[in-house]
Amino acid sequence: MGRYGEHHSPIGDPHTQVQYLDVALESGQSFRHALDAGITAFLYLFEGSAAIAGSPLHTHNLAVLSEGDALEVIAGEHGARFILVAGRPLNEPIVQYGPFVMSSRVEIEQALDDYRSGRLVRKKASFTGD
Question: Nearest-CA neighbor of 32 among 91, 84, 108?
Fold first, then answer.
């Protein structure tokens, strides 16, 4: 999801600039990606091992990345597979109840009411293609 180099996914959000990348690397292979200022990001390694800035990362490790950095991941001996999730923070309050996460208790109550009455999804997502 989002953009990587010259590649653009059909799904994007211009407000949050969300990126969700699924990256697979062979042994010793590297992955480079620039993180713009104002972007919050994390990397979750779910297969193999890797190193970020010389620090080892093992299977099921999560690395919270600094904004504005140039990220370089180098795969370990048996390769690596990870997700990179990045985007612009919303800087809004967070209220969570059950599966719902909103910005206020009023919005939570509205979501519950919409769910109970079958109105939760008002407009389905659309896809754009290149």
Answer: 84
First to last CA, the chain: 14
Report how far apart, in Å, the C-alpha atoms of 32 and of each of 79, 80, 124 are. 15, 14, 34
- The model's pLDDT over 68-125, given as tens digits with 9 standing for 90+, comes to 668 899 999 999 999 999 988 888 899 999 889 999 999 999 999 999 998 887 777 7
Going from N- to C-terminal start, the domains of the chain cover: 3-87, 91-121
Share of the chain above pLDDT 70, in %: 93
Kindly tell me the number of DSSP H helices and DSSP E strands found in the chain.
Answer: 1, 10
- Please name every residue paired with 87 in a beta bridge, in sequence order, or none if there are none: 40
Class in CATH terms, 3-87: mainly beta
Distances, alpha carbon 24 to alpha carbons 2, 39, 80, 122, in Å: 17, 23, 6, 36
The reported pTM is 0.70
